[in-house]
Amino acid sequence: MCRQKAAETRTATAAAVKKDPLVECQNITRRGRGIIAASALSVGCRPLTRIKEDSNNNVEARKDGLCAPIVPPTLIESMRKIRCTYCFQLIGSRNPSPTNLLHLHCSMECRNLDRFWKNEQIASMKLISSGSISSMPSPTVLFCCRILISSVTNPEVLTNYNQLCFEKVDGSDLKTEQLGIHLNILSQCHRLLLAMGNTAAAKLANDLIEPNPILAFQFMSRLTMNGFTISNAEQKALGVGVYQPASMINHSCRPTAVQSFWLSGSSDCHHPPMLQITMCRDVKIGEEVTISYCDVTASRYDRQKVLKTNYNFVCDCVVCQDTERDDDLIGLVCHAPGSCNGRVRSLSSDLLSVSALDKNKQYQCDICGQSNFEDSLKVISKLMTRIETIEVKLKDDSVHDSIKYSQSTGQDLKQVFDLMTKYCNPLTSWYVAWSSDVFVHWCANALNHSRNEEDQLNTCHQALTVLKKSRDATKFCYDYEGNLLWLIKRGMEAKLRLFVNPVDFEALSLMRSVRRNLNHYYPSTDEIVSSLDESIRAYSYS
Fold first, then answer.
1. Which residues fall within 8 angstroms of residue 501, CB to CB, at 6 or more apart?
2. How far apart are CA 526 and CA 233, in angstroms?
3. Nearest-angstrom CA–CA distance, 478 and 498
4. Edge to edge, what strands does the sheet with 274-279 contain?
5. How wide is the angle at C-alpha 259 spanned by C-alphas 302 and 431, nearest 5°?
6. In angstroms, what is the C-alpha Rg of the chain?
7. Which residues contact 531 (CB under 8 A, 6 or more apart)?
């Protein structure tokens, strides 16, 4: 009787979820399809539920909000040698892998579960040996192949994929360069699928290319507009995937929900990265659930550039219309004689502007009336280029750690930060916050590559000094509901403080607070969360 009652309860719960979902998809004026709250959603709620049915047909309603990918995601190139190609977990230290190896697995379990890797590896090596291609296929090519392969055995995959939104154009509106890129990707898919011997999937790829190339544009547009960059808790990009229910959630620069990715831990049943949507603000019935498609801490112009380039729309949300806040995010400093310290304001509110540092854009000090900021804009632009160049070097696996974390690299980043605080307001400017972020991250990583305690302490003190100088700007830019970057930054600050002073109980309390907040978005097995747990245990006994 108890088992029967438990089974009835599970079935009733699942039925209730099916009957009364937390959210529903609706057409929204000027925004297309979106996800609307069908019931009141509170902070911490996970609106995307999934129904799980086991081999005994026992239905269970799970409220973890985890969303499975439409097909297994693919790693970006820089992660292929250090992460499992199936579950994306870090792989323990091992001998250097061959440069032509496309896939690595963390365990035999992942290797057996991954049904794509072997054919992709053999076909890629065959094409390289024949001279048809010079390097391993890109993540985009592999992902498109997986959709087409899955569609052969399960047509519902392609049906679901085709339900995703895409950029609507006719033949006359097609951009030649963009179409050429899309056709090239699908041509590579066609060649790779033929090398795999999968003629049915290869025919699907060819049918997208000929006779009507608009189909190829639509297919690739769906991936561009609905794909998620899979990242860890530190917001480091790992790969790309499509998660259909979540892909229908629209963007806002002040989102009501946050997306995060769950990677299976070493003790878990291994699975591809799962997407979780968690509410970061309360939403009433009928209100829209939104997430961010870009770095919403950046200036409006930088946000618009990303959204226009990647998603082909211009955001006109309340935050984007707040020109005063945006001027503060840019934070130009007036250097007129007499140090008036006035606030510099833009004279244009054009939402279509896509560059915060546009030399044609006019600014004016609200106290002295100074309007010549061309030199300041040029300097800031050069400083941004320097940061981007260093970031590329830091992310390049071919650059040795001794170069990445050399004193000269740290001094260069510190100099950029100091100059940025001269030309931008250290109380509000996103550029100050960004240059601070890059330097502090460099310091945190440099600690692991130094054996000299004096050098380590000096690095920590420099990082904490920069954090103190940029605290107000960082808080202004990052401190709002659900901003995971802000949480990670606060956790890093706590670690640096404890490294300098192991009995800094305020820092330990801060670290515990960060850990509790991250618990809403990530499992205890996540790399960053595990690292925080380890630090909390270590310093709790200091």
1. 507
2. 7
3. 23
4. 66-67, 274-279, 257-262
5. 25
6. 25
7. none
Q: What is the mean pLDDT of residues 378-391?
A: 91
* Assigned token pair, 26: 């609706």
Please state, in angstroms and rounded to a whole number, the distance separating the CA atoms of residues 66 and 51: 10
Q: Please say whether the beta carbons of 495 and 501 come within 8 A.
A: no
d(Cα 377, Cα 89) in Å, to the nearest integer?
A: 42
Cβ atoms of 46 and 36 closer than 8 Å? no
d(CA 237, CA 449): 22
What H or E segment, with its residue span, contains residue 24? strand 23-28
What mean pLDDT is predicted for residues 360-375?
83
Distance, C-alpha 510 to centroid of its chain: 25
SS3 230: strand
| 183, 130 contact by CB (below 8 A) | no
For 87-97, the pLDDT digits (tens) are 999 886 555 45
Contact 283, 333 (CB under 8 A): no
Q: How many residues does the chain have?
A: 542
Q: What's the token pair of residue 102?
A: 């496309």
Q: What is the pLDDT of residue 84?
A: 93
Under 8 Å between Cβ of 234 and 488: yes
Peptide bond into 245 cis (omega under 30): no
Pairing of strands 237-242, 363-365: unpaired
Question: Which DSSP symbol is given to 342?
Answer: P
Return phi, psi of residue 365, to 5°. -75, 135
Strands 274-279, 23-28: pairing kind: unpaired
CA 380/CA 364 separation, integer angstroms:
17
What is the distance, to the nearest Å, from the Cα of residue 40 to the centroid of all Cα atoms in its chain? 27
pLDDT at 277 over 70: yes
- Report the alpha-carbon distance of residue 540 to residue 504 in Å, rounded: 10
End-to-end CA distance of the chain: 54
Burial class (CB in 10 A: 0-12, 13-18, 19+), 351: middle
